[in-house]
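JOB MANIFEST
job_type = single_chain_structure
chain_count = 1
residues = 354
[input]
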Amino acid sequence: MILNKISILAALSALALGHAAIAAQPAPYHAPRTPDGQPDLQGNWTNATITPFERDKKYGDRLALTDSEVKQLEGSNAALVAKGNEPTDPNAKVTDLPTDCGRGFTGVNCGYNSAWVDPGTRIIDLQGVKRDSILVSPADGRLPPMRPEAQQKLRARFAGAGARGGAGAADNPESRSLGERCILSFGSSAGPPMLPLLYNNNYQIVQTKDEVAIEVEMVHDLRHIHLTGGHPPANVKLWMGDSLGHWEGDTLVVETTNMRPEQNFRGASAGSKIVERFTRIGPKQIKYSFTVDDPQIYTAPYTGEVALNSTKGPIYEYACHEGNYALPGILAGARMEEKEAAGSKSAAASGGGK
Protein backbone atom coordinates (compact mmCIF):
# COMPACT_ATOMS: atom_id res chain seq x y z
CA MET A 1 0.00 0.00 0.00
CA ILE A 2 2.79 2.42 0.92
CA LEU A 3 4.56 1.71 -2.39
CA ASN A 4 1.35 2.37 -4.30
CA LYS A 5 0.92 5.73 -2.54
CA ILE A 6 4.53 6.65 -3.36
CA SER A 7 3.98 5.71 -7.00
CA ILE A 8 0.80 7.78 -7.18
CA LEU A 9 2.51 10.79 -5.57
CA ALA A 10 5.45 10.49 -8.00
CA ALA A 11 3.09 10.33 -10.96
CA LEU A 12 1.13 13.37 -9.74
CA SER A 13 4.39 15.27 -9.17
CA ALA A 14 5.60 14.49 -12.68
CA LEU A 15 2.24 15.53 -14.11
CA ALA A 16 2.39 18.83 -12.21
CA LEU A 17 5.90 19.50 -13.47
CA GLY A 18 4.74 18.78 -17.00
CA HIS A 19 1.88 21.26 -16.68
CA ALA A 20 4.27 23.84 -15.21
CA ALA A 21 6.67 23.39 -18.14
CA ILE A 22 3.85 23.88 -20.62
CA ALA A 23 2.64 26.95 -18.75
CA ALA A 24 6.19 28.38 -18.77
CA GLN A 25 6.41 28.29 -22.58
CA PRO A 26 5.85 31.68 -24.20
CA ALA A 27 2.49 32.12 -25.86
CA PRO A 28 2.53 32.31 -29.68
CA TYR A 29 3.03 35.87 -30.87
CA HIS A 30 0.08 37.51 -32.60
CA ALA A 31 0.88 40.58 -34.66
CA PRO A 32 -1.07 43.77 -33.95
CA ARG A 33 -3.74 44.69 -36.48
CA THR A 34 -4.14 47.67 -38.76
CA PRO A 35 -7.49 49.54 -38.81
CA ASP A 36 -8.40 47.27 -41.75
CA GLY A 37 -7.79 44.16 -39.60
CA GLN A 38 -4.60 43.06 -41.37
CA PRO A 39 -1.50 41.90 -39.47
CA ASP A 40 0.55 45.07 -39.02
CA LEU A 41 3.95 44.90 -40.76
CA GLN A 42 4.42 48.66 -40.80
CA GLY A 43 7.56 50.36 -39.60
CA ASN A 44 11.26 50.70 -40.34
CA TRP A 45 13.22 47.48 -40.72
CA THR A 46 16.73 46.33 -41.56
CA ASN A 47 18.03 43.03 -42.94
CA ALA A 48 21.69 43.92 -42.29
CA THR A 49 23.70 40.83 -41.38
CA ILE A 50 27.09 39.19 -41.83
CA THR A 51 25.45 35.83 -42.54
CA PRO A 52 26.37 34.92 -46.14
CA PHE A 53 23.89 34.04 -48.87
CA GLU A 54 25.35 30.56 -49.40
CA ARG A 55 26.69 28.28 -46.66
CA ASP A 56 30.35 27.54 -46.20
CA LYS A 57 30.84 23.94 -47.34
CA LYS A 58 32.54 23.06 -44.06
CA TYR A 59 29.15 23.20 -42.28
CA GLY A 60 27.55 20.62 -44.56
CA ASP A 61 23.81 20.38 -43.95
CA ARG A 62 24.03 22.13 -40.56
CA LEU A 63 22.11 25.43 -40.41
CA ALA A 64 22.66 26.44 -36.77
CA LEU A 65 25.95 27.88 -35.55
CA THR A 66 27.28 27.23 -32.06
CA ASP A 67 27.78 30.09 -29.61
CA SER A 68 31.55 29.86 -30.01
CA GLU A 69 31.25 29.98 -33.82
CA VAL A 70 29.02 33.05 -33.61
CA LYS A 71 31.47 34.74 -31.25
CA GLN A 72 34.36 34.05 -33.60
CA LEU A 73 32.54 35.28 -36.73
CA GLU A 74 31.18 38.44 -35.14
CA GLY A 75 34.53 39.11 -33.48
CA SER A 76 36.39 38.80 -36.78
CA ASN A 77 33.95 41.22 -38.37
CA ALA A 78 34.43 43.71 -35.52
CA ALA A 79 38.20 43.51 -35.98
CA LEU A 80 37.82 44.11 -39.72
CA VAL A 81 35.69 47.20 -39.04
CA ALA A 82 38.20 48.52 -36.54
CA LYS A 83 41.04 47.98 -38.99
CA GLY A 84 39.17 49.77 -41.75
CA ASN A 85 38.43 52.73 -39.47
CA GLU A 86 42.11 53.34 -38.69
CA PRO A 87 43.45 56.68 -40.03
CA THR A 88 45.00 56.50 -43.49
CA ASP A 89 48.49 57.92 -44.02
CA PRO A 90 47.93 61.05 -46.16
CA ASN A 91 51.20 60.33 -47.95
CA ALA A 92 50.20 56.78 -48.91
CA LYS A 93 50.23 55.85 -52.58
CA VAL A 94 47.92 53.47 -54.41
CA THR A 95 50.71 50.91 -54.35
CA ASP A 96 50.68 51.07 -50.53
CA LEU A 97 47.11 49.77 -50.33
CA PRO A 98 46.69 46.22 -49.01
CA THR A 99 46.26 43.50 -51.60
CA ASP A 100 43.30 42.10 -49.67
CA CYS A 101 41.27 44.24 -47.28
CA GLY A 102 38.30 41.90 -46.77
CA ARG A 103 34.68 41.77 -47.97
CA GLY A 104 35.92 40.94 -51.47
CA PHE A 105 37.89 44.18 -51.90
CA THR A 106 41.42 43.80 -53.27
CA GLY A 107 44.13 46.08 -54.66
CA VAL A 108 43.00 49.57 -55.65
CA ASN A 109 39.46 48.76 -54.53
CA CYS A 110 40.77 48.84 -50.97
CA GLY A 111 40.72 52.62 -51.34
CA TYR A 112 36.94 52.49 -50.88
CA ASN A 113 36.53 54.10 -47.47
CA SER A 114 35.33 51.57 -44.90
CA ALA A 115 33.14 54.26 -43.38
CA TRP A 116 30.76 53.75 -46.30
CA VAL A 117 30.57 49.99 -45.79
CA ASP A 118 27.91 48.88 -43.30
CA PRO A 119 26.73 45.32 -43.98
CA GLY A 120 25.82 44.70 -40.35
CA THR A 121 27.57 43.28 -37.32
CA ARG A 122 25.50 40.24 -36.35
CA ILE A 123 24.67 36.73 -37.53
CA ILE A 124 21.00 36.15 -38.43
CA ASP A 125 19.06 35.06 -35.34
CA LEU A 126 15.60 33.69 -36.09
CA GLN A 127 13.71 32.28 -33.11
CA GLY A 128 16.95 31.46 -31.31
CA VAL A 129 18.69 29.76 -34.23
CA LYS A 130 21.90 31.52 -35.32
CA ARG A 131 22.10 30.95 -39.07
CA ASP A 132 25.26 30.11 -41.06
CA SER A 133 23.56 30.93 -44.39
CA ILE A 134 20.56 32.72 -45.80
CA LEU A 135 19.73 29.75 -48.02
CA VAL A 136 17.94 26.97 -46.14
CA SER A 137 16.97 24.79 -49.11
CA PRO A 138 18.62 22.80 -50.65
CA ALA A 139 19.74 21.29 -47.37
CA ASP A 140 23.41 22.16 -47.95
CA GLY A 141 22.54 25.86 -48.06
CA ARG A 142 23.91 26.31 -51.57
CA LEU A 143 22.33 27.10 -54.91
CA PRO A 144 21.13 24.04 -56.84
CA PRO A 145 23.06 23.12 -60.02
CA MET A 146 22.39 25.17 -63.12
CA ARG A 147 21.04 23.37 -66.16
CA PRO A 148 23.71 22.56 -68.80
CA GLU A 149 22.20 24.91 -71.39
CA ALA A 150 22.13 27.77 -68.83
CA GLN A 151 25.77 27.12 -67.95
CA GLN A 152 26.69 27.20 -71.62
CA LYS A 153 24.99 30.59 -72.12
CA LEU A 154 26.75 31.97 -69.05
CA ARG A 155 30.15 30.78 -70.29
CA ALA A 156 29.49 32.30 -73.72
CA ARG A 157 28.59 35.60 -72.11
CA PHE A 158 31.84 35.76 -70.14
CA ALA A 159 33.84 34.57 -73.14
CA GLY A 160 32.38 37.41 -75.21
CA ALA A 161 33.45 39.96 -72.62
CA GLY A 162 36.93 38.45 -72.51
CA ALA A 163 37.24 38.54 -76.28
CA ARG A 164 36.80 42.32 -76.12
CA GLY A 165 39.70 42.56 -73.71
CA GLY A 166 37.42 43.30 -70.81
CA ALA A 167 36.39 46.62 -72.38
CA GLY A 168 32.87 45.46 -73.19
CA ALA A 169 31.59 46.54 -69.78
CA ALA A 170 32.57 50.13 -70.62
CA ASP A 171 31.36 50.22 -74.23
CA ASN A 172 28.31 52.32 -73.32
CA PRO A 173 26.17 53.30 -70.31
CA GLU A 174 23.75 50.41 -70.97
CA SER A 175 26.49 47.85 -70.37
CA ARG A 176 27.05 49.12 -66.82
CA SER A 177 25.11 47.77 -63.84
CA LEU A 178 21.62 48.99 -62.99
CA GLY A 179 22.91 50.38 -59.69
CA GLU A 180 25.66 52.42 -61.35
CA ARG A 181 23.04 53.90 -63.68
CA CYS A 182 20.74 54.76 -60.73
CA ILE A 183 17.92 52.67 -62.20
CA LEU A 184 17.61 50.00 -59.51
CA SER A 185 19.34 48.95 -56.31
CA PHE A 186 22.71 47.27 -56.31
CA GLY A 187 22.64 43.50 -55.84
CA SER A 188 19.12 42.41 -54.97
CA SER A 189 18.33 44.90 -52.23
CA ALA A 190 15.02 45.92 -53.82
CA GLY A 191 14.38 42.37 -54.89
CA PRO A 192 12.62 40.24 -55.08
CA PRO A 193 14.18 38.56 -53.23
CA MET A 194 15.15 41.43 -50.90
CA LEU A 195 18.66 40.62 -49.73
CA PRO A 196 21.26 42.44 -47.62
CA LEU A 197 24.38 43.92 -49.16
CA LEU A 198 27.34 46.13 -48.18
CA TYR A 199 25.30 49.11 -46.95
CA ASN A 200 21.88 50.83 -46.97
CA ASN A 201 19.99 47.76 -45.77
CA ASN A 202 16.92 49.62 -44.53
CA TYR A 203 13.26 49.41 -45.53
CA GLN A 204 10.02 51.13 -44.61
CA ILE A 205 6.73 49.23 -44.89
CA VAL A 206 3.39 51.04 -45.24
CA GLN A 207 0.02 49.30 -45.60
CA THR A 208 -3.42 50.15 -46.91
CA LYS A 209 -6.43 47.92 -47.41
CA ASP A 210 -5.42 47.10 -50.99
CA GLU A 211 -1.64 47.45 -51.04
CA VAL A 212 1.58 46.94 -49.11
CA ALA A 213 4.31 49.39 -50.15
CA ILE A 214 7.98 48.86 -49.33
CA GLU A 215 10.42 51.75 -49.63
CA VAL A 216 13.96 50.48 -50.25
CA GLU A 217 16.79 52.66 -48.98
CA MET A 218 19.34 51.54 -51.59
CA VAL A 219 19.11 53.84 -54.62
CA HIS A 220 15.39 54.89 -54.43
CA ASP A 221 13.16 51.91 -55.12
CA LEU A 222 9.54 51.51 -54.05
CA ARG A 223 7.87 48.12 -54.29
CA HIS A 224 4.10 47.99 -54.77
CA ILE A 225 2.49 44.75 -53.58
CA HIS A 226 -1.12 44.67 -54.74
CA LEU A 227 -3.63 42.73 -52.65
CA THR A 228 -6.31 42.76 -55.34
CA GLY A 229 -6.47 41.99 -59.05
CA GLY A 230 -4.21 39.70 -61.05
CA HIS A 231 -0.93 39.63 -62.94
CA PRO A 232 -0.67 41.51 -66.25
CA PRO A 233 0.13 39.56 -69.45
CA ALA A 234 3.52 37.82 -69.51
CA ASN A 235 4.86 40.22 -72.13
CA VAL A 236 4.53 43.18 -69.71
CA LYS A 237 7.87 43.23 -67.89
CA LEU A 238 8.38 45.48 -64.86
CA TRP A 239 11.28 46.53 -62.66
CA MET A 240 11.02 44.38 -59.51
CA GLY A 241 8.36 42.38 -61.37
CA ASP A 242 4.63 42.38 -60.71
CA SER A 243 3.94 41.50 -57.07
CA LEU A 244 0.54 40.15 -56.04
CA GLY A 245 -0.08 39.45 -52.34
CA HIS A 246 -2.63 37.78 -50.12
CA TRP A 247 -2.90 36.93 -46.42
CA GLU A 248 -2.60 33.41 -45.05
CA GLY A 249 -3.31 33.91 -41.35
CA ASP A 250 -0.63 36.29 -40.04
CA THR A 251 1.60 35.79 -43.10
CA LEU A 252 1.68 38.02 -46.16
CA VAL A 253 2.34 35.77 -49.16
CA VAL A 254 3.61 37.55 -52.27
CA GLU A 255 3.98 36.04 -55.75
CA THR A 256 6.11 37.97 -58.22
CA THR A 257 6.35 37.30 -61.94
CA ASN A 258 7.09 39.33 -65.11
CA MET A 259 10.57 40.50 -64.08
CA ARG A 260 12.52 42.57 -66.59
CA PRO A 261 15.35 40.51 -68.18
CA GLU A 262 17.96 43.09 -67.09
CA GLN A 263 17.16 42.25 -63.47
CA ASN A 264 18.61 38.76 -63.72
CA PHE A 265 19.39 37.90 -60.09
CA ARG A 266 21.84 34.97 -59.99
CA GLY A 267 21.33 34.43 -63.71
CA ALA A 268 17.54 34.23 -63.39
CA SER A 269 15.41 34.03 -66.51
CA ALA A 270 12.53 36.36 -67.31
CA GLY A 271 10.21 33.41 -66.61
CA SER A 272 11.24 32.99 -62.97
CA LYS A 273 8.61 33.05 -60.21
CA ILE A 274 9.40 34.24 -56.70
CA VAL A 275 7.18 33.62 -53.68
CA GLU A 276 7.92 35.66 -50.55
CA ARG A 277 6.46 35.33 -47.05
CA PHE A 278 6.42 38.10 -44.43
CA THR A 279 5.50 36.98 -40.90
CA ARG A 280 5.81 39.23 -37.88
CA ILE A 281 7.13 36.85 -35.23
CA GLY A 282 7.76 39.42 -32.51
CA PRO A 283 7.39 43.11 -31.67
CA LYS A 284 10.76 43.85 -33.26
CA GLN A 285 11.19 41.18 -35.93
CA ILE A 286 9.67 39.96 -39.20
CA LYS A 287 10.60 36.58 -40.62
CA TYR A 288 11.14 37.08 -44.34
CA SER A 289 11.40 34.00 -46.53
CA PHE A 290 11.55 33.59 -50.29
CA THR A 291 11.47 30.74 -52.79
CA VAL A 292 12.81 31.19 -56.31
CA ASP A 293 11.44 28.79 -58.94
CA ASP A 294 13.33 29.12 -62.22
CA PRO A 295 13.24 25.78 -64.07
CA GLN A 296 14.89 27.30 -67.15
CA ILE A 297 18.06 28.00 -65.18
CA TYR A 298 18.19 25.77 -62.07
CA THR A 299 17.47 22.09 -61.59
CA ALA A 300 15.39 22.80 -58.47
CA PRO A 301 13.82 25.75 -56.60
CA TYR A 302 15.76 27.31 -53.73
CA THR A 303 14.59 28.95 -50.50
CA GLY A 304 16.13 31.47 -48.13
CA GLU A 305 15.22 33.15 -44.85
CA VAL A 306 16.24 36.56 -43.48
CA ALA A 307 15.41 38.45 -40.30
CA LEU A 308 13.95 41.94 -40.71
CA ASN A 309 14.76 43.67 -37.43
CA SER A 310 13.16 46.92 -36.33
CA THR A 311 15.33 50.01 -36.65
CA LYS A 312 15.01 53.72 -36.06
CA GLY A 313 13.84 55.92 -38.89
CA PRO A 314 13.44 57.87 -40.97
CA ILE A 315 14.94 56.46 -44.14
CA TYR A 316 16.90 59.20 -45.85
CA GLU A 317 16.91 59.88 -49.56
CA TYR A 318 19.57 58.10 -51.60
CA ALA A 319 20.49 60.87 -54.06
CA CYS A 320 22.10 58.55 -56.58
CA HIS A 321 22.92 61.04 -59.34
CA GLU A 322 24.01 64.03 -57.28
CA GLY A 323 27.79 64.41 -57.34
CA ASN A 324 28.15 60.99 -58.97
CA TYR A 325 31.03 61.32 -61.42
CA ALA A 326 32.02 57.65 -61.47
CA LEU A 327 29.95 56.57 -64.47
CA PRO A 328 31.10 59.33 -66.87
CA GLY A 329 34.63 58.85 -65.53
CA ILE A 330 34.58 55.13 -66.31
CA LEU A 331 33.29 55.71 -69.83
CA ALA A 332 35.73 58.58 -70.49
CA GLY A 333 38.61 56.44 -69.25
CA ALA A 334 37.64 53.62 -71.59
CA ARG A 335 37.49 56.02 -74.56
CA MET A 336 40.94 57.36 -73.67
CA GLU A 337 42.33 53.82 -73.54
CA GLU A 338 40.84 53.12 -76.95
CA LYS A 339 42.34 56.33 -78.34
CA GLU A 340 45.78 55.47 -76.95
CA ALA A 341 45.57 51.93 -78.31
CA ALA A 342 44.59 53.26 -81.76
CA GLY A 343 47.51 55.71 -81.64
CA SER A 344 49.94 52.94 -80.77
CA LYS A 345 48.71 50.81 -83.66
CA SER A 346 49.01 53.76 -86.06
CA ALA A 347 52.54 54.53 -84.88
CA ALA A 348 53.56 50.90 -85.21
CA ALA A 349 52.12 50.75 -88.73
CA SER A 350 53.94 53.94 -89.74
CA GLY A 351 57.21 52.69 -88.31
CA GLY A 352 56.88 49.37 -90.06
CA GLY A 353 56.39 51.06 -93.45
CA LYS A 354 59.67 52.98 -93.32
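[summary]
Residues 14 and 20 are 10 Å apart (CA to CA).
Helices lie at 2-24, 67-84, 148-163, 326-353.
exit_status = 0
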